[in-house]
Amino acid sequence: THQTTIIKMKTTTLLFLSFILSALSTNPLLGAADDPVLDAFGEKVQTGVDYHVLPYNWSLGGGLALRENSKGSTCSFDIVVRQNRIDYGDPVVFSPLEGGSVVSVSTDLDIEFSLKIICGQ
Q1: What is the mean pLDDT of each run of 10 residues along the chain (121 residues)?
Q2: What is the pTM assigned to this prediction?
Q3: How is the chain split into domains, by residue range?
Q4: Assign residue 64 a region: left if phi > 0, alpha if psi is -120 to 50, beta otherwise?
């Protein structure tokens, strides 16, 4: 019975922790939804401005970039992480779906590469 009690307690604790983690991950903390996203310099991320997306840990590589898809599709690209950590990759622009000049934590947005690519027909 002692073994059964320990197993029940572990199961109950696990279920409780799962519930708490689920609740916190689906419901942002009060006020967090309107918090602005900050860039590497602590400035608010602006819409319509070029940014380079880099890993937080510089040892993990460089920035995001477009690379032509090797599967032979015409004008098809993959998003890759540059291997060289000093290669910032290709710039992107953040465009919120509902307007605004600053990207907030809860902003629904499009992220587009700023490159102008002309594809052959």
Answers
A1: 44 51 54 80 93 86 83 76 87 89 89 82 55
A2: 0.64
A3: 1-30, 34-113
A4: beta
- Distance of CA 23 to CAs 13, 28, 29, Å? 15, 9, 10
Contacts of 80 (CB under 8 A, 6+ apart): 64, 65, 66, 67
What pLDDT, on a 0 to 100 scale, did the predictor assign at position 47? 92
Q: What is the 3-state secondary structure (H, E, C) of 65-112?
A: EEEECCCCCCCCEEEEECCCCCCCCCCEEEEECCCCCECECCCCEEEE
- Contact 89/82 with Cβ under 8 angstroms? yes
CATH no. of 34-113: 2.80.10.50
